[in-house]
Amino acid sequence: MDGDGDDDGLVAALRRRGLHARWLAWDDPATERADVVILRATWDYTERFEEFLAWTRRVRHLLNGPEVVAWNGDKRYLLDLARAGVPTVPSVFAAPGEAVEVPSGEVVVKPAVGAGSVGARRFTDAAAARAHAAELHDAGRVVLVQPYDPRIEAGETALVFLAGRQSHAFTKGPLLPPPGSAAALDASGTFAEETLRPADPDFELWDLGHAALRAAAERLGVTPEDFLYARVDVIGGADDPVLLELELVEPSLGWRQLDETARDLAQREFALGVESALDRLGLGPLRRRGGYRRLGRRQRGTLPHRGPQR
């Protein structure tokens, strides 16, 4: 087993720091015997959410931690960030049995637990939007309704943080097609195809990313440095950036958007973040005696070449 392609250099980066690492499917029983499990490409977790959450609580030590996964795996975390003053795309949620509020204008309707834009659709017709929401409700899903922000046509800016520190950024082209059609998925059916490019965002966007991390850390009773990795997806420019997603479970970190030198340095920072986490967990000596570090990957067989994002 191996990673998703984008993470190919992580195992070597960890081993250069004396950490034994290898890829395992998250539901491989061996993960529960590992000293530390690092979540990376566990993209089928949304289909098995309760099972996945139960597994996160059985693992000895998980990065990012089980409380982070439980909070961030459900998009209702956006309400917490908005209440904390983080500018976010307006979001309304409705559980099965609850009425779905559809604002006027173009909207996006998607499941609150989901990844890779699967189940996400754009609508200009309120009746069609409610019909899609009813289908999600029938499947037992909580529904998220957001106004469609046309600035997303310029793409999203993905801000990558490692151990609470800003690392690098890249842009993602728009995923959702016009109203009336579903997103084109890759051959695995796991995520919508993406177009990625390197980016050098203005500091105002990075400020929003830092604010989102601080708010999330305060909500969870940790510090931003406790997040081994984080990705903040932002739309808009320096004059009015808005948070679209905060990714703390399994985000693609865009390593391949960096040149070789920058990628090696960033992945070294990732490995140093793992070392810091081991020290916080009281596992520092394990590194010197060859303890195991497992990188959790998705359960299904063939991995797509690039990570999906919710």
TrEMBL record:
PROSITE patterns: ATP_GRASP. Signal peptide: none annotated. It comes from the Bacteria. The keyword ATP-binding applies. One of its GO terms (molecular function) is metal ion binding. It comes from Mycolicibacterium grossiae. Keywords: ATP-binding, Nucleotide-binding. Residues 78-276 form the ATP-grasp domain. Transmembrane segments: none annotated. The keyword Protein biosynthesis does not apply. This is ATP-grasp domain-containing protein.
